[in-house]
């Protein structure tokens, strides 16, 4: 008697609202190696029967689920967790079932009459006997012994106590009757990345400026620059495109329409007769020299990220070889990039609606594959929001299925939903609006969105105070203190951050014109001569901040951020903590780069694990100064001329088992 | 060159977060005839191109989608709506596409050089020509004319103006190029019910008490009771089970374990030698008399709801005929209902984990089908949370696919997630926690959950101040005013409400014992003799409240509820409004049944459409008194001895086009 659509109507356990799931499981959540995935769901069934449930999880390529139990919280919510210890993709779902033994045990404890208890013990004996058959190992014998004791001749009270014995419950929980178990309707996916996807400091520089004033820098010159970057404590060196640059419609200095003979052009105008996306600009060097540069970086403990800008200069070989990948105008010319009235004649976008979209996708993937072969594993992707989302989803998944160590940073300064979509579909990290968030209200609300909201499961922020495209007004007008407090904010609010240097450490704040965020004499269009040894350089300060980041695990995560009240709107106050090892930092930033600001901050001592009956030490890791604080209400004063921020390590009294007290 | 899993990579439109969807579309939302479904989603694409999108919807059995446009709100959110005008099931999804004409038009307005405009007009001409081919009707000629004008010899400015002509845009919007459109990954379902599913007043009574003191009431006696119920303004008469009642382990008065000879037993102990779920209790009458009762109710404008309690007395014919549907204990006896230490020996639950679950499901459906054949279309389902959720989902969907007019009310006073699951899977209405929500905080928060939260899309509340199982303490100790204010709350907070009478209108407040919510001398176990003509009966008051509900469309919906501040915690103040026809009610309830309470209420006059520069009238529909109010801050005083609530109709100044002013 078939009931259409009903597999087995006796499966009574219901699983709802499993989390974390992105769009019902359509997209994966993200983790890094060693992190855990906390899974929750509503589990319930009809009637009074008790349930049991597990998380089932496996690496994508494994055939069998591993399991870890779920435990009830309150209001029919259950929780469990599992750790991810391999790169790649994991899957998880929930299994739940009505557990007749647990129900029987629960009821047995409440039965009152000898008749009821007697019948119940017979039923319980059968349940335990059935478990013995499922066990089929050494435990089977144990279970049969338990069953015999339930059904035996001992006094009723004793047999009842046997039924309630926790050892029996523990054993029975290992052999539940799961014939009628249900599975969550959704399956969740987890992409597991290297820790560098979560925690790292980026340093961007233009290779061609590395030998100024003597001319166009080479990769060999860049190798010499690596020590400078590594000593500041950065983890990743990111280079703008290193490919040949087009001549046709080449832009001149300050984005002028006509280039002078020696103007090098924008590195994002990729491609010339000398090659395209798989070539190195001849003035920078050869492919072999690039590989040498990679090795030199690795020797310094630095990784290299290169720029992926999927667009062509008019001279790019693709334009002639694959006209079908470009949109042609009625006059036969190739459609250049435009956003009327703005025109970018030096850039031809790919025409992703072309009939030949599949060969185009495969060719673009071959670009990534090519650089992976050279040894690159981090790609900063230029303007991903101007190429179709399905393309990126396919590309990133295809690359990461072969190279799970590869990371992609999305340079999309676009609308919120577009930025989040890119993160969902696979980008490992994303540029953010931090670049323009300056006030306390702005920062607190944006950080709540990033670290408390649902987006945190897939959107990993990477905070940049500046980029070659963006010199924020705050830096234009705030002077040295502005650079310092933006650095502290980026480096302590977000586990991943980056600066575009040497413009940053050399306090470059001159815009092309008032109201513009473009740099004057932008390196995008010319070689710049930076004096790295300038006494006002932030090099030392950056070194200190990066060292603090490395030494304090609390700064290596995003979700542990917590803001605290300060009675001065220019003072931003927040803490980050980690458990293992125990580490508690309190950051106070003066958002006003011009004036000393002071005020009282309020700390929730209990939540922070601080004994409110004793003083505790606030040790400023930036200046080395130490303050003895007491209670939740403490005074701070921040002079931007000296140091526009405190990064306090809070050293607390700990009571050990031997009653010995110490600060850590 | 196949790319696995990619249908067509050129489909660039993204559709996210479509709403309303329950669990990603796993369950339907609910509407009643004539209501609209407002659909929202995030729509966006890569780059700068403009999008267009539509809601596609159809009745489940229709092959083709109908369409209605989506319009952008802000932040990439789009909205549209469609109306449902037939019972049954609708489906909806979203279609969206990158619209090259709209993009072209947007860009044309911003182009600056004659060269750019000239090329653009050629491109635009081709776009319009292509639309003409798609149109293939009278509009094709029109479009070709437009295309010719774009490409013609007229001055450039004129041709550009042609391209920007709104008439052309309107015409082009009718023939978009949708070859690369995308559809939402989810499809939403809508169950469309009769308006009675949204708005109706229920009256429950025990048929066997209808002829007291002369003996066991009959269906014939019940017919005489219908006038009384109809005159009070109720819409639905709900009868507890009308089937034969078992003898074995029959419960006596006040739930005593042994019944006296004349004790009638609980109507929920269904089944005896005289029949089961498809039989009428012989003392009530015959099946033919039941059909006569239905007709008599219909003649009074009343619908009849019967009780579905899927459980059996030990004497039920099923027990002998289908032992496979019951759980047998080791001693051979059938397992009775129990929740240790509580035992219900007079009730055998069905064993839904039986091997023979399919025949059982089909038999239970045949019970519903049987009563539908007799003319019943509303079923109040007893304790649905003690039968498997998959069973109800199958049953309700199966019944409603054949009889979309049928309604099911879930009597589940259980945990929140269980109640919501039952509503999701198909129950048309649900009992609620209203029965125990007495304080201002409790009521405001519960109503926010029901009328503002996501549950409102599937959970239709039905508010009961009392039931045969529940005499809340508030009614036990609050006296007449308590009954009155609970009635006003139920009838005005919720479009659907019900009372168990005559216990309610006769102010029955005696509990079996202190601390119990069971009625003393409960009708569940004995015939009661109610004096309907008692002078303190609430009959008149109920009549007035039900008339107010019928005359004021604002009270016929749930989502229009809005609470307003009152500076006295015992005063609950809320408004409901409707647009067509214009109707604005303000309810002020004194939650304290013992003392006069007074205070100031604050109304958001602008939001309520009240001209704050003129007085407005607050007309108490309960007492007939009229107050002239002015401004947002007004004084109220509520004496529970007189009337524990105001139901004000607010009559506002309206300025017409001829500057004539009136109150409505």
In short:
By secondary structure, the first copy, chain A, is α+β, with helices and mostly antiparallel strands.
Any idea what the radius of gyration of chain A is? 31 Å
Anisotropy-based shape of chain A:
globular
Largest interface: A-B, 65 and 65 residues
Distance from N terminus to C terminus of chain A (CA atoms, Å) equals 70 Å
Main beta sheet of chain A? 7 strands, parallel
Level of helix content of chain A? Answer: 25-40%
Average pLDDT figure of chain A: 95
Strand order of the largest sheet of chain A: 20-19-18-13-12-11-21
Would you spell out the secondary-structure blueprint of this structure?
The structure is a homodimer of 664-residue chains.
Chain A: E1 14-19, E2 29-32, E3 36-44, E4 51-59, E5 66-69, E6 71-72, E7 77-83, E8 88-98, H1 100-108, H2 114-135, H3 138-151, H4 156-163, H5 166-173, E9 182-183, E10 188-193, E11 200-204, H6 219-231, E12 236-239, H7 287-299, E13 303-308, E14 311-312, H8 317-321, E15 337-339, E16 342-344, E17 348-349, H9 357-374, E18 378-382, H10 389-402, E19 407-411, H11 416-425, E20 429-430, H12 440-451, H13 473-493, E21 496-500, H14 539-551, E22 562-563, E23 571-578, E24 583-590, E25 597-602, H15 605-608, E26 616-620, E27 626-629, E28 633-638, E29 645-651, E30 653-655, E31 661-663
Parallel strand pairs in A: 2-10, 11-12, 11-21, 12-13, 13-18, 18-19, 19-20
Antiparallel strand pairs in A: 1-3, 3-7, 4-5, 4-8, 6-7, 8-9, 8-10, 14-17, 15-16, 22-23, 23-24, 24-29, 25-28, 26-27, 26-29, 30-31
């Amino acid at each position: 008697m078939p009931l259409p659509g009903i597999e087995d109507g006796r499966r009574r356990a219901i699983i709802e609202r499993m989390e974390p799931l992105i769009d019902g499981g359509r997209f994966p959540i993200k983790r890094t190696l060693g992190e855990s995935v906390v899974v929750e769901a509503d589990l319930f069934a009809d009637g009074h029967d008790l349930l049991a449930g597990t998380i089932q999880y496996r690496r994508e390529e494994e055939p069998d689920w591993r399991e870890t139990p779920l435990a009830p919280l309150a209001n029919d919510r259950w929780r469990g967790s599992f750790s991810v210890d391999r790169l790649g993709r994991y899957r998880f779902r929930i299994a739940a079932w009505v557990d007749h033994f647990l129900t029987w045990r629960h009821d047995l404890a409440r039965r009152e009459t000898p008749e009821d208890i007697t019948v119940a013990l017979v039923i319980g004996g059968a349940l335990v006997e059935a478990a013995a058959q499922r066990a089929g190992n050494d435990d089977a014998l144990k279970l049969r012994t338990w069953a015999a004791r339930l059904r035996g001749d001992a006094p009723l009270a004793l047999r009842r106590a046997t039924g309630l014995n926790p050892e029996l419950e523990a054993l029975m929980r290992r052999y539940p009757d799961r014939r009628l178990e249900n599975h969550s309707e959704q399956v969740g996916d987890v992409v597991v990345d290297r820790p560098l996807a979560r925690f790292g400091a980026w340093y961007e520089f233009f290779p061609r400026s590395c030998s100024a004033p003597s001319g166009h820098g080479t990769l060999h010159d860049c190798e010499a620059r690596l020590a400078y970057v590594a000593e500041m404590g950065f983890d990743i060196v990111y280079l703008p495109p290193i490919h040949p640059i087009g001549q046709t419609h080449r832009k001149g200095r300050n984005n002028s329409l006509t280039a002078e003979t020696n103007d090098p052009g924008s590195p994002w105008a990729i491609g010339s007769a000398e090659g395209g996306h798989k070539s190195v600009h001849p003035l920078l060097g050869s492919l072999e020299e690039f590989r040498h540069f990679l090795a030199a970086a690795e020797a310094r403990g630095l990784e290299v990220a290169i720029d992926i800008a999927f667009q062509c200069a008019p001279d790019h070989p693709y334009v002639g070889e694959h006209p079908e990948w470009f949109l042609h105008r009625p006059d036969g010319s190739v459609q250049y990039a435009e956003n009327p009235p703005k025109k970018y004649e030096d850039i031809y976008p790919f025409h992703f609606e072309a009939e030949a979209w599949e060969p185009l996708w495969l060719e673009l993937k071959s670009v990534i594959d090519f650089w992976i072969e050279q040894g690159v594993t981090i790609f900063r992707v230029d303007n991903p929001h101007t190429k179709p989302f399905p393309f990126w989803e396919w590309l990133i998944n295809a690359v990461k299925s072969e190279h799970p160590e590869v990371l992609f940073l999305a340079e999309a300064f676009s609308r919120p939903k577009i930025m989040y979509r890119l993160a969902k579909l696979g980008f490992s990290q994303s540029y953010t609006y931090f670049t323009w968030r300056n006030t306390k209200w702005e920062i607190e609300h944006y950080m709540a969105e990033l670290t408390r909201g649902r987006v945190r499961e897939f959107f990993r922020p990477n905070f940049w105070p500046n980029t070659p495209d963006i010199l924020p007004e705050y830096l234009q007008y705030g002077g040295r203190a502005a650079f310092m407090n933006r650095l502290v904010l980026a480096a302590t609010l977000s586990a991943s951050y980056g600066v575009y240097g040497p413009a940053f450490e050399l306090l470059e704040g001159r815009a092309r014109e008032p109201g513009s965020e473009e740099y004057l004499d932008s390196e995008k269009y010319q070689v710049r001569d930076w004096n790295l040894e300038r006494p006002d350089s932030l090099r030392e300060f950056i070194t200190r901040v990066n060292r603090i980041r490395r030494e304090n695990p609390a700064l290596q995560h995003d979700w542990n951020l917590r803001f605290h009240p300060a009675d001065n709107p220019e003072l931003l106050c927040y803490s980050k903590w980690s458990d293992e090892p125990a580490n508690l930092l309190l950051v106070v930033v003066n958002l006003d780069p011009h004036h000393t600001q002071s005020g009282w901050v309020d700390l929730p001592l209990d939540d922070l694990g601080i004994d409110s009956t004793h003083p505790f030490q606030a040790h400023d890791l930036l200046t080395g100064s130490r303050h003895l604080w007491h209670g939740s209400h403490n005074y701070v004063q921040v002079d931007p001329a000296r140091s526009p921020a405190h990064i306090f390590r809070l050293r607390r009294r700990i009571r050990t088992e031997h009653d010995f007290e110490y600060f850590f």
